[in-house]
Queue: 4 jobs
Job 1
Amino acid sequence: MKKTPSPNLNSDVFNTLKDRIIHWHYPPDYRLTEEVLCEEFGVSRSPVREALQMLVENGLVEKEAHRGYSVKQPDMREIYELYEVRLALEVYVVTLLTKKGIPEVLWQEILDRIQDNATDYAEKDAEFHESLAILTNNKSLIQHLKSINERLQFLRIMDDMYWAERYSSLGKLIRYADDFVIICRTRQDAETALQRVKQIMIILKLTLHPTKTHVVDMGQDGFDFLGFHFHKKKTKKSGKLLPYIWPSQKAMIAVRSKIHFITERMRLSNTLPEVIKFLNRVIRGWRNYFRIGNCTLKFQQLDRFVRYRLEQWVRAKIGSRGHWNELAFRTSMTKHGLEYFYLHGICAVKS
């Protein structure tokens, strides 16, 4: 009677191989032979074959006739498809949790865990959305999202290692999804780095964004990345030139547009508590994202804008015959729990 391999044994071999591929111990085109793996793990062919087949199903390994198994080469179309599917899953998770709600304690635990030792922001982003997916209690959803993130992590590490091995002397590559920035010490290094990136893009049959791709001086123009504006400024105390970050102009315009949309005249049929509830969702999400860095002045500007737009909305609702009561207005804001972008102690120094 043929002995069936233990499920745990299959899983151990699979997880070990997957970890090696994701962290680039096995680069693309690396051949995985059954004989070598059987000898290394001290197992028969059955669990090794099962693990290899699972890697194929996860998109990390491919099997070719007369060649066997090898680590899969990245395919740009597949990469874009993975990002599209992940976006759809993440939006669905957020939609579910918006209806269901998240206990304040669990929400704070997730934020604290993500913010601790945040160095790899792409990895932290994946961890954040996987944590939200867990709250849905949908096992299939969690598994699919984690599988996609593992595949994208492999591709991200591969790209980062390629730059680190060949061009790290020119500057440090910082990347999130298909957006990246290279920090260089001199303009000459930056110009050279740009040429190297263009060469890599040609090999990958891709093109750089014509308006977003350029060389800038952080001390003069600065640059926008992931919604933030990065700029070097002299500190008031020591006069040293240090990097500062705050919400970009594009991000400020976008959030003002949302606030304006919520407080438009066409929504006078809504009640004040409803309007404040919608505003708080925008305020809370925006504040949690941009709370790092030098955001105090930007947050205070947005608080004044919310106050102005809400006052205009209330005045329009009561009409020209209504009597304006400033004290009653302020009391209503407090009563219905209007939140603020700026909270004392949540931001860094003023920019």
Note: The chain is about 55% helix and 10% strand.
Job 2
Amino acid sequence: MIFALTYSRSVSGPLRLLLLALLSLVSIGFTPSVAQSNWQPGAGCRWSELAVPRNGRSGFRLLNSSDTGILFTNFLADDHSLTNRNLLSGSGVTAGDVDGDGLVDLYFCGLDNNNRLYRNRGNWKFEDVTASGGVACSNQYSTNAVFADVDGDGVLDLLVNALGGGTRLFLNDGKGHFRESTDQAGLRSKTGSMSMALADVDGNGTLDLYVANFRPDTIKDEPLTKFHGQIVNGRRGKRQLGQFAGIHQPFLGHAFWRCVGAWRARRVVS
């Protein structure tokens, strides 16, 4: 038996996030007929039984891109992967209802190509609305993204990580149109940001942000770099020499950003 869930705004923050995660798993591609089902009240939620066909087999069925309209492919040029193997970690995807129509939309991250936002039209049909959404994130190696209501206005905003581009914030107007607010939020950096998580860790009713950072590049991909070993104060160390010496951005550590209101963030731990 499969159930579809929606959440009440009276539900506490962590439970609300859990229910949103469940919704993202069961809601993608649902047609408007689901929204008109016989909903039953529950504790902080409502549920509706779905009619599951008795024939056929369980499991997933592959849908053609030509049918769904999702034509995204994450590209990475061979020469870029050879000069920075950190790019081989790939990129992420996030799902959420960005325009308030009750259907879960999709956002894909790209490396040598722009990110893409697909609006869910129902019945497993999607429309590319990246241009109107303003979230292409050109000219960066995007690694991860997440939809979350960071400013508490009831609509999902977008955070995007990039290798060497840090974390960027885009605020949603509720109709799937986004405005970048990275500088206003105090998030601008050049770190090799990879994964991230949000939660209200201090109980003040706002979402805080934790970002796992990595080096934007790796010295292993710079063959002209040489090392010289020496003993300093009785301890063995090494010094970088050669063409690329002195230009590496250091690993800045993972970052914890605490929301201090009107979604402005302050870096607390690194």
Note: Confidence is low (pLDDT under 50) at residues 1-35, 238-251.
Job 3
Amino acid sequence: MAFLVGGALAVAAFKTVRYIEDQNVRERFHLDAQDRINAIKREIEANLEAVQNLYSFYEGSEKVTREEFHKFTAHLLTRHPSIRAFEWIPRVPLMKKNLYEEEARARFPDFRISEREERGILINAQRREEYFPVYYVEPLRGNEAVLGFDVASEPTRLDALKNARDSGLMAATVAITLVHEQEDLDGFLVFIPVYQKNVPLDTVEKRRKNLLGFVVGVIGIGDMVDRALTYLKPAGINIYLDDASTSQGDIDFYKRQPLLNNDRSASAETEVKERSNLFIENSFQVADKTWKVTGVPVTAYSSDINDLYAWAAFAGILFVTFLITVYLKKMLDQAVYSEGLVRNLGNEINVRREVADALKKSEKEFRALFENMNEAFAYHRIIVDETNRPVDYEFILVNHAFEKATGLKREDILGKKVTELIPGIRDSKPDLMSMYGEVALTGKDATFELHFEPFNKWFLINAYSPRKDHFVALFDDITERKKFELERERLLAELSSKNRELEQVLYVTSHDLRAPLVNIEGFGRELQYSLKELMNALEDVEMSSDTEDTVSRIAQKEVPESMAYISASIVKMASMLRGLLKLSRLGRHELRSQEIDMNKMFADVITNFEFKLKNAEINVNISDVPPCRGDSGQINQIFSNLIDNAINHLDPARPGIIKISGRREKHHSIYSVEDNGIGIHPDHQEKIFELFQQLEPGSGNGEGLGLTIAHRIVERHHGKIWVESEPGKGSRFYVELPA
């Protein structure tokens, strides 16, 4: 009976654990897959925005030369490596075909308007009413073959071209094999139509009539997905991209398989999707197309985990059941244990779900913050006087972030000069005109910080020139950071002043107190001589026995005892003043930083203590240590003080041992001086680096300044010093210094 009950429990546990693990796998998969889908969407949006920026450049220019096209797109290609190329495709009527070819041959002698035949060979384009050849392309290297290719000769590209022309909006092709590549590579083209300016475009016929050409972005799908997923760890998820807007329905045009997937067969992927119904799908717009992204786990994503834990639970309960049938008493104990195990398992599941919910919330907040961060952008034309000196600049194009950062509205500033908008700026910011002028006239990039009084803000400005006499300024608002830096500089200056005042007080105090201390010591000796002369004089004077006893007691006992106390206090005070003077001189000493051979330095320090070490029969072990950077004399003082402390506070009940070691961690070297002495009580460990604090108060070992001086030197080297100690076992001092 017990075995049957145990078997039933085992089956129930198997199903329960497998269900729980399956739910956990599903939650983890949805998080992982959604991360990847969102990353792909952000990368697509960034690439489309780059093509839109090139279109804005054309809209803000009367005519764009090949050199201007090259300079503007170079910056975009660097920031968006998954964009394989940018193209300018003009509309060329039949009557102007020869004129365009002749103009292009001035730089490219073999230029011709071409198309591909069935075998893929480029031939002269057939006669038609108008052509749409690739006239500019960047980068040019590797894309020479595409120059002159008539995009309208290929049906897929022609469809997207017509959609963009007739709608006046961005249009994309379906997935195609790119002409630009020597090897087959899937990608797609994005077309944005450029029309004549200041003409009506409210009908399709007007848009066709006034079309100048197209700004085109050539985007590699594989590059785009790989870049989007670069910073995400492989998770065993296959990514499929489908074009859901075609007349044939969903068309699978890209598949990305993770490196950890050993089973790459389509049938295996289909089997996982159908068996577990574990997948995620999202749709979004790419220009005029609707793309669908599907994430499907590989076979190994969940099956091993599910089966492992489920079978483990099944086998475990069967084993427990076997023990229950043999040992009845242990059955009760095991039942209690199993109940606690199940309760803990439920608690663990709840905790994991709470953590997952918190992660989802945090991720959502972070994405919202990240996706709303935009740089302020302003495109200008520089204005010079008759001597070619920059005197003004005109606003051509700004974005919403610029409006938000400055409070200036787009409609109020476009086409206007900055001196009209901000009177007096030429006098208040004379360097601004010259810096912007150098960028616009020479093409040299510039980065600088600027305090703009009209807005009472600090900006970090990156300026570059996409074309002659023009420049782009990218703004970051750094007002809060500058306020913090200015306040930090003020506090540091104030702290430095206070430290100098404190050092001066210490120096003056320790120096000036030595004079009265010397006087006390001298007059004390005079009192001893005078007392001796007084006693000699009193030998010939007759006194009563009581008077003689009193005089003898005062002269031979009380006065000598008082003088001994005075002398001891003078010695102690002199030692403390010497320590204060040494401490005050640390701040006056200029640090001479150099690389220090610490193995040699420790050998020199041990040599200086050789007599004390031999006399106390102390064994010193020195390991090989890394070098550091610092002032050699002051670093020597640190470890001399630490080793002197170790010698003075060894336990006389056992042989003394001092161990010195070191290690390198990133940009620092950490050294350890360890002893087996009396140790330091935890209540005193925080105080030992303070002024006049001793490891053994009242012992008379030193003036309590050795560790204070060491701590001060370490601080001047931007390092750290700390102690680990246990009373009765010893202490270990650590010193961290720049490497």
Note: The two ends are 73 Å apart (CA to CA).
Job 4
Amino acid sequence: MNIEEYFSDDRLYNTPSRTLCGANNINMEVFKKFCNYVEIEVFSYCNRKCEFCANSYIDRHSRNIFMPAQTYSKIIDELTMIDFCGDVYYCRYSEPLADKIILTRLREAREKLPNAKLTIITNGDYLTSSYIDELADVGLDYLLISKYPLPNKKSSFEEQMQQLIEFAGKLNLEYENCGLRNNAATLRLLHPKLHTTIVSREELETFATNRAGTVNSSQTQKLRDIPCTHPFTSVYIDYEGKVAPCCPIRPDIPEHRDWIMGDVNDEPLWDIFTNTKYSLLRYMVKDYGTQKIYPCSVCDDNCRNIIFATQKRMQKIAVKDEFLKYLKKSDFPLVLYGAAKLGKSVKYLLDKHNIKIDFVATDKKYWQAGQKFFDFEVQAIEDVLANSENTKVNIVVAFYCCGIEERANELNNLPNVQKTMLFEDFDFERANKASKELNYLEVDLAEHCNLYCAYCTHNCPVAEPKFPSIEQFEQDFIKLSKLTGGYIALLRLLGGEPLLNPEIVRFMKIARANIPHGIICVVTNGILLAQMKDEFWVTCKENNITVRLSPYPIKLNIEKIKKIASEYGVELCFGDSGYRKGNDKFWMQKLDESGKFDFAEAHKNCFWPHCTFLKDGKIYLCATAPCSAHLNERFGLNFQVSEDDYIALDEAENLQKILEFIKKPSPFCRYCATEEKQIVEWRVSEKKKEEWIVDEEKSL
């Protein structure tokens, strides 16, 4: 749900009268619809006294007070009553792994809440290899390990990463180096059952807040440019059962006690979530320009670092005409500062608008002699600037690095730099809604597959083997090229399993010939990847096409695949499709043949909005409508696709027509049971109707 919908829904501001018939059901309905995050503190103890936390002066160390078992069970039972499928976090102001009672609590939650995502945030001090196995066995989904800095010690990014690697070694776990994420050195630990991430918290100015004025640890000025979302979506429950509307507010701080929303021992969660205090607080924080109440008036949580807020503003400029207009008019040489994935995105955009790049550069510590980026010889940024002393240059910053915002500001102040602009990456799948470009498109190169995943959103297990017509494909892409100017930010060639298509190389060449500007990737399950002929890999290299491997719990020779891709110089990436949870769980959403849903409301609640799909000369909002034909044929159903469910390329006078179409819901959305989405274990399909269709009794 879009956060603007929370701010505008009257039910979050008006408390239902307890004397109204069915008021309790109203409260349950509001809680189920809007609350997607519950944080629980199962005991009070924390072993640390971090400077950025009120535990530095509040006693959470001398004894451990446990949440009563009946209180915890009441919370879990109430979440069970609404089939809660959001996030349940175990943290608050305790160290959740300090006592192994957490295993008992997790086991109860997993048994009663099969569709919730259970997460622990820990400092890692109590963590061992066997403890991780125990957590996985009782049903924990995510483990986030925050490695905090030593007092008065500042480590470089390389030192931070080495510390994380050493910690992974102590746990006897292999790891995937994720580099810099959200300004923090990050590793993913490769546990077979548990999604585990370890993050360095060295950069306090990035993540630390003043905890509603209770500590003074935030080292950079912050700006509130969006309303605080916590009271609209979340409940935070401490070890006594007291409910706070956000993380910073805590009952053991006297100044905060007026804003404790209630006690789960005395009333249900949904009555607390809809009570007068919660409603009043939402009303007060919705107008975020100047907060009207303490402690919100002094809190910088859910605010943006001013440097990052500036970066956001720069991003908005970067994707709008002003960014491009400036570069078109400027006579100064242009330096693209970044030679990786984000740099590639920026280059495609600049190429599409005929903006010439003069130099491609990276930091000296990342620079390698002979490094190529398209036809450019990559240089160290220091060398580029040294050789440009007699003329000013524009710099477009397009890569991630620890402190890159400060680095951009430094560059901007150099005498031979005219202007420095940050270009931040964005979610292509969801960017079409507000863009003037076509930012995302996917096309099936095969309707069938060789993996047969249950609940497949393209319905591949019940699809007859079929490939698209290459003649139709070429006609479509010639039209797309004219409409888009040859630029689609992200084009995904998928299926089914695209590698099953014996003519995949021809399809890839046609796609790149007509869409020269933009990222193109082949999305595959990887089963056939190591067997692909030289022609496939050479075509990927020559046409700058990425191979994206979707993670599934199947055996693949990943090292062999990596080696082949490396030998041919092909970019290989591993990633989710936006709806997965690790490699063995993902979100599933069924269809209801009755078509009883309001299609506009269903579109609002869609879990996969803006996954624009092309098939046989027609553009759809997503693959659901065109792929419903497989269900009709297999099970004798009657899903109807009307002319209002797509826009034909022949009928699109210009790109704006397509962009206007994909912003709006289509009639087929009425079949989507968006309220029925749930997390499911990956398994091989049994090709049964109930994998895709809502049970008829539920449909009534």
Note: The first helix runs from residue 3 to 8.
